[in-house]
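Hey, I'm writing a tutorial for new members on how sequence and structure tokens pair up, and I'd like a real worked example in the thread rather than a made-up one. If someone can provide the structure for the chain below, I'll link this post from the tutorial.
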Amino acid sequence: MATIRHLARSGHRLYTTTLRRSTEQPSTITPTTTAQGWLFIDSVFPVQLGRWDIRHYIGLVRSSTLLNDLHDRLNRLTTHNFHVLSVEPQTKDGGVFVKFSYTPSPSESLDSLEQAVRDQLHGEGSLPSWTGLSNGSAWLVRGTPWREDLNRFPSPVLKVTFEGPDIHEQKLYQLLRPYGRINDLGAPVPVPAARNVLHGLTVNDTIIRLNYQKPIQAHAVRDWFGSHPKITLPLLVFLIGSLTYTIFDPIRSFMVQGKLEDWFDYRKYGIYQWFRRNALDHLNFSLTSSPSSSTASDVVVVEEGWKERQVAENSIKAYLTDTPTTVAFVHGPQGSGKSSMVKKKISELGRSTLIIDCRELLKATTDSQIVGGLAAQTGYWPVFTVLNSMSSLIDLASVGLIGQKMFTVLNSMSSLIDLASVGLIGQKTGLASSLSDETQQMLSVVGKALHRVYISHRHGTQKRIQKEEHQHKVEESIKRRQAMMKEGTWHDGRLDCISGNGIMSELGIGDELWDSENTAADSVFTDLEKDSEEYEEQQVINKRAEEGSRKKKTEADVEAISALPIVVIRNFESKNIGGMGLTAKADSREEVLNVLANWAGSLVENQVAHVIVISDNRENAKKLSKALGSKPLNSVALFDADPASSLAFVRQKLHDAGVDVAFAGDEAKYLERLGGRASDLESMIHKVRNGQTVQQAVEEIIARAVGELRKSAFGDDTDDIKSKSWTREQAWKVVKVLTSKAEVPYFDILMEFPFKGDENALRGMENAELISIGTHDGRPSTIRPGKPVYRWVFERLVNDAVFRATQEIGFNEKQISTSETAIQKYEEELQRLRTVEELDGGWFRWLLGGRTNVWERERFLLRKLGEANRKVEELDRTNKDLKTIIKRGT
């Protein structure tokens, strides 16, 4: 059994074809004088192309009329004693099966019978059709009629099945050609005639079975897509990118706006607040976290008795109540309460606030985690970071593949994921874009959401103002009406409706006065004084109206500023966060900070939001200044409190806790060791509340700081110190100098050994909060301990004999190594000078009393060599004594 697929197209033939079919058998031939056969008449009903085709209902409505008309026409046929036996509609194929009887002629073939029937039918007029057009034709059924109601609909593709030996293609063409042109190149219209006429035909002992074949198979679509990747992949990329960009970006902007306006916080809804007031509060139960659940690292805002903080608070308040033209940069030592102060001022204003914590972002170990962390903090959703991982896997796979074809396919897949992820996560995956591009695109969506928040608040404010103005007008109208009633000048128009129209309407007007002006019309000349008073009163009213208009305009401007959201960027630091893991790329941290700085600058430039950046180090302001261009940065500095403010703060806190401490004598002196650092003062207050004395609390804080500083400044081992930007010798130099002095000149430290102009080491110590660098006129001027308590910590380290001896030995050995290197250079230069001594006059010039240039240089080198040699000897003796101290352990 074989299967051959052909395409057949229907259409009227302008000529007839007579074929020899010696092997063909009629449908039904009896040995009697009459025989029976079948005709198929097409185009009577609409051809049903599928279940969705509603045209066949039209044919069903006209079925009775069409069949009766067709039956009458067929009964009028006289050729070969033609007689209709039955008419059976095949509506799905658009035709009718006609069973007839006839008298066969031995000298004529079936073709002549078919042609005679067709000619006589056309001679009677056009065949009935559902469209009313004469486009039908009659075909003699040469096989067996197959009348079925399966869901198999006409198709331009016919599936031919052979039951027996294969039939030659030419013979098959001759069989099918009379019913329509066969075309292998196009997709023609369905031809139900060929299927209904030739089904079951026996040709050369082979039975032909015909069935409709769907023009497009599922696997054909799949195969075509797979065999044309250069067309399908770009098309698929374009469709996915366009669809996702159109759908997901508005959703993300909506989600960010919802986070800013607390749409998803159940505690902000009135039903929850009512339920809490009437149920939860009575049960002493709350769904929110208790204050004790906060981390120990949180620092309570120092509110009372802190004069230095009031200046910073006023600066923040002034910035938030003015039009945003620059970024507010709040900097100060760690633990000074910067974040708490900013949070307090924002909560007083009650404005929408977006907080981005750079510390959480920079803890990430991969770029995908950075993107996910930023999305979580901003409310950016949905985000599909898995596409980044897929792109990374494809990158790794393509590195190991050599075949150019496979490499091209992988590149296409990577591009597909990149462009698809532009819509899915708002950025490309990293194959064709960097981390900075990804974060820029995310923050761009966040910026649009911030603008929508501003518009929403502005509209709400305007509606509230309009409502208040309308309410004010209503109240004024009521007051004016009441005053007219008291004067008897008020007339109620509703009385006119009751009284009627025309003359009857006069009944609605009583003796009441219309208004004050008409009442006084007869006494104009006698009431000049009253008119003058009214004029002056009107002038006062107009003046008040102008003042009210200006006041409303001012209020509108204030409301416009208060509608702006606030963006707070915390922990804006480029240093390693708490020793956490590094990101996937070495420069990922700087990329993120630069993108945030540029984004902050764009927000204030477009007046979308107020932006406050919080940092422990003032050096980080350089990134913001670069992003702002020529605009100055609004810098707000927080410092440690002075002794008087610190003492007042501690007393107040302890008094509130029910602990009374006199702070006289030693207690006040111990408190001064902590300085004015808020975190240290809070720690001491906590310890005193738990039963310790002030002396014990301060000593414990200093002891803990000694261990922390020893590890952070000098490292646990050699490998640990290599990861820092300074050496142990440089750290020891700073510690030893600041033990005896509260501050030292910056350049005195910078120019001396072991720094020798190495500013990176000092900047690294400042970032680690080991030291604090003061400025004067924008340049570094002084170096102080990073915390006030560090001065006492430095003293403890220096007074530790073993630790001091260890560090001094390392410091001296570094000096010895440097001196020996210098001595070697001096000796080498002296050797070279001996070779050029004769050229400079030699001994002869010296005997004459002259000094040669070589001799002067030799004297200088010999003096430096002697100094270096004596220094080495002295340091070597010192190291021997220090080693003795280490051996004794004291």
